[in-house]
Amino acid sequence: MPAPLRRLPAALMLGGLAISGQALAAETLIERVETEHHDLRLERVATGFEHPWAVAQLPDGSFLVSERPGRLAHVGEDGESRHLEGVPEVNARGQGGLLDVVLHPEYGAGDGEQDWIYFTWSQAGSGGTATTLSRARLVDGALTDVEELFAQDRYSGPGRHYGSRLAWLPDGTLVMSIGDRGSHPPRAQDSGDHAGSVLRLTETGGVPGDNPFLEDADTLDALYSIGNRNIQGMVVNAEGQVWATEHGPLGGDELNLIEPGVNYGWPEVSLGVDYATRQPIGADSLPGMRDARYIFEGRFAPSGLSEVASEQFPEWQGNLLAGGLRSERLMRLALEGDEVAESEVILDGEIGRIRDVRQGPDGALYLLSDHADGGLYRLVPAD
Length: 383
Prior knowledge:
The protein has 383 residues and is mainly beta. The chain has no helices and 28 strands.
């Protein structure tokens, strides 16, 4: 039986942005958001998503929006949203559910051979749940040819710290974050455990032949980095660098430059404190472990990270945009080399908890709000 259509409110049909000859519905929320370099217009493209986690824009200008309870919405240019059939049965308790979604880098090119949608989700199994990677094709309003490509090596509880961001490297391999799973932080220092790491995989979920730990018999072959608490923002920039935002415990949220074979310290190194005792966790810095490139102020709670490469924002070229959950902030981070040289708050509470940040193929900037009635928002230059 086809999934029901949800007609968006008429107010969302007030404006539009042309993409490939089509117009996406949008409601202007703030006519002018003033920033240091650009004045922006904040628009709402769609609403009605239950705790959305990730957004991906398809070549025709429509969107895929993952919802944590286990639904994948397809938002058309006509303002209608349909839940796609064929999504695996996710374990949606706690912080688990349907998580990241990205397209194959060659999606929409050529004969369609690479028209794959990749997504991560929490899968139930013996002993708890595991962060899992699958891919599928979109055919006639449903996911087809669904393939499970990878699942972390250990199913465990509780239902949190799945990590679960995906990004493509220039060589066509895929990096994937997995959190420390929340029950036993030292797992992030165990190179025989996928928890608390970034993985590097082939497009079919295999292990690339030049992964950094292949010669170490005590380390899992898929590992790319270790010592990562819970990465929920990750992007590969134009230079091929992997940047990631990572939740600290209470404070100490980090921006890291992820490099192959590097240990990022958690829980031996942290600038956050214990939730219960308010005592420091670990040392500020240790030999053999990489310090963060930037520490967010207060309880930022990062989720979603994008690089600005759009011609619509010439003064922001190469800058990172980081979303915040508890802080409800969107921050701009200007880089000089491998360091953050400037930061600026762009949004501060206007849309609530920011779960995802993406630059679309149309050059606009897209945000998801993480609420029971979450929305898809867009930032474009103000008129």
